[in-house]
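Aim 2 progress. For Cytochrome c oxidase assembly protein COX19, the working sequence is reproduced below.
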Amino acid sequence: MSTAMNFGAKSFQPRPPDKGSFPLDHFGECKRFQEKFMKCLRDNHFENTLCRNESKEYLQCRMERRLMAQEPLEKLGFGDLIGGKSEARDKS
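Predicted structure tokens for this construct:
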């Protein structure tokens, strides 16, 4: 017979989401930053290295509003952008 009624088995234990999983922005708190980032990607033929400042601003917004875990920007790959501009994007 099937083991569906096996009461000796461990019960399901929920676990936190994997790194990189975070809540959706249901209230649009960071929509402006997301739209700015997406526009930059479209304008630059989806060359994401040219939109690193916009990406950093978007992630900062999400962290400030607790839509993702707080992480140092250096750990997210933006160490070179802190206090300055990206070398890849000097057309501002």
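The helical segments are 31-43, 52-64. This observation will guide construct design in the next reporting period.
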